[in-house]
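Quick one: structure tokens for this chain, please?
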Amino acid sequence: MHKNFFHKLKVYYEDTDAGGVVYYANYLKFLERARTEALYTLGYSNKKVKDEFKSLIIVKSCTINFKKSAYLEDILTVRSFVKSTTKTSFFMNQEITRGDETVLDGQVHLVFVDEKGKPVKLPDEIYSKFKPYFCDSIKI
């Protein structure tokens, strides 16, 4: 069984439209914050990855399925885990819930690139720290 990263957040006024419903593009920000916190949980930051490994983690693509709306002052939880990896990238599944209700689920394809944007191998140190969060289907 793999581990999950969890990140809680509160919906603020700035996250919503005039009707108090979370604006669709803000869900991407929520997912990004959760991935950043997941990285931080493992002892890294995007700045540290850049400084120590001369790499950036970029989003190549994402698939988002909106299930229900979230509203002003909702408390949401973002659950994240690594679905699969390649030599230079990984697919992270993420789900936003409000209590027992799924608000959104999606998958984000993240790629390690050098400062010129060329894909590079996942650093072994980062790979080993992420390994407990991998789902069963790993492609190396």
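The first strand starts at residue 5 and ends at 10.
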